[in-house]
Write a structure and sequence with these properties.
Elements: H1 2-25, H2 31-59, H3 66-81, H4 100-110, H5 124-131, H6 135-146, H7 158-170, H8 181-184, H9 203-215, H10 222-229, H11 233-245
Helix pairs in contact: 1-2, 3-6, 4-6, 7-11, 9-10, 9-11
The chain binds heme C (HEC) (2 copies).
The site of one heme C has 22 residues, from helix 3, helix 4, helix 5 and helix 9.
């Protein structure tokens, strides 16, 4: 920027000297015309600066501050999700190590957005807590939880988990259920910004959220709504058990 400014100043000075020289030597040179042309060139040169400054202003995205997130988490969320996001209550999801973009999206989806009658993801408890947060606090919380290390849950029923494994790896072609690993990865760790981590999560929570997708209470992703609607409740139980123990 500063180098460009220096160039601009030099340009103006040089052209001043130039016009002075021209005005002495060439009697017929119309100085006004020359100045006008020079202003045009200057304007043209300055336009990209102005546009750049404007777009830079709108493009700047707030980066979540994990320390601010830690404070809010400790004061409000820890009661249910534990201080580091490793909830030990099986109905409350583990948030530690989850991708930040996913956490951010969910907190927005729990809110009732302007012009809508209900939240995309309906949950009476999280509606209240998410609605009390502003956009920056949501980014702060997402930054905090995504940087914590997960203490994974575990599978309790081995046979149930084994039948879930088959579904996870191969899907259920007959009923149009794709292999979960094709999006969530072979170890269920997901892909940041695209697919959430689903391994090591409490089976009770996973089961509840897949059923919510199936029934339409969680209507914040069409892919998962379709997939869940094609799974039997037994398959949902099995896959949830398998995911709790997946590492
Ligand atoms: C009273 C208990 C309680 C409190 C307090 C609470 N939560 Fe939750 N949270 C839940 C429950 C229960 C769910 C599961 C909701 C569902 O099934 O849709 C949940 C779900 C979530 C999810 C979705 C996780 C996922 O894997 O999709 C996020 C993110 C979340 N909470 C963040 C927070 C944050 C941030 C706070 C503090 C501002 C907070 N919660 C406070 C109980 C709580
Ligand atoms: C086409 C890609 C795709 C496939 C295949 C897929 N998922 Fe998902 N899944 C997603 C996306 C995207 C989300 C995030 C949804 C959102 O933004 O709320 C998600 C979310 C989830 C969640 C919610 C996680 C949480 O913390 O609440 C669970 C559980 C889940 N998927 C399980 C599965 C299972 C089980 C299968 C296989 C039967 C599967 N998924 C197959 C794309 C996929």
């Amino acid at each position: 920027m500063s180098r460009n400014m220096a160039f601009l100043i030099k340009f103006v000075m040089d052209s001043n000297i130039y016009s002075a020289m021209r005005s002495k030597k060439i009697i017929y040179l119309n100085i006004n015309t020359f100045n006008f042309l020079r202003s045009l060139v200057l304007c043209a040169l300055l336009i990209p600066f102005c546009i750049h400054a404007e777009t830079a202003k709108t493009e700047t995205k707030y980066i979540g501050d994990e320390n601010k997130g830690k404070q809010i988490a400790g004061q409000i969320c820890a009661a249910c999700h534990a201080s580091d996001g490793n909830s030990v209550i099986p109905t409350n999801p583990i948030l530690a190590g989850q991708h930040s973009a996913y956490i951010e999206k969910q907190l927005h989806n729990f809110q009732v957005k302007q012009g809508n009658k209900k939240a995309m993801r309906e949950n009476a408890v999280m509606l209240g807590f998410a609605s009390a947060l502003d956009d920056k606090q949501i980014s702060d919380l997402a930054a905090f939880y995504s940087k914590q290390t997960i203490s994974p849950s575990y599978a309790k029923d081995k046979d149930l988990a084994l039948s879930g494994e088959l579904l996870y790896r191969a899907g259920d072609l007959k009923n149009g259920v794709p292999a979960c690993g094709s999006c969530h990865g072979p170890k269920g760790s997901g892909i940041p910004d695209q697919y959430p981590r689903i391994s090591g999560q409490h089976a009770e929570y996973t089961k509840a959220t897949l059923l919510a997708f199936k029934k339409g209470m969680r209507a914040n992703n069409s892919q998962m709504m379709t997939i869940s609607s094609r799974m039997s409740d037994e398959q949902i139980s099995a896959i949830s058990e398998y995911l709790a123990g997946l590492r």
